[in-house]
Amino acid sequence: MLRSPTTSRLLLALSMALATATGTIAVATPAYALTRADVVATAADEVGTREGSARANSYGAAADVYDSTKDYAWCAAFVSWLMQRTGATSFRSASVGDWITVADADDYGLSVTDHPRAGDLVAFDWDGNGDFAYPSRHMGLVESVGPDESFTTVEGNTSLPSGDLGVAERTRSTDDGYSTLFIRIHVGSSSAVAPTAINSDASHDGVG
Fold this sequence. Notes:
By secondary structure, the protein is an alpha+beta fold. It contains 5 helices and 6 strands.
């Protein structure tokens, strides 16, 4: 059974407390090693969160954005929150363009890949010309990859079944007329400790 980072930390604290109570010397060892499955599970737990809710509005703090999610395009802010929550990479930005720039530079444990797998990030260029420029870009997390050109994602700032915006699972394809760029997260390899904004304004991203 998959343990979330929060559950693993609680189990570690409990085991240390029991060791102290019994006089056993507790050795501080990691309770788990972060996996790609942890990142996917953390994202999936957020599915159904509605735009403008307190939960959704909290995502932006990971990238130093404190506005309501009703007031800006927050797909990259959700990705930043996910990375902060799991520790998969130390990079944070509320702009899709920044994530692409850093991945192109092979920095912060991020790189561009042509072979997506669960736990990767994906950027979309809706007009299909491949420049990933405002206002036609968006991003999310790859949840699973199908046997053909299809894949499923967890995305913020996208359509819920109700028609509202929020965090939702979506089925996408590399053969639907828009451009895709997949970003590999080399989990735990990022050595940088502070978020860096590269080139873009969060308000200049689109809706998925």
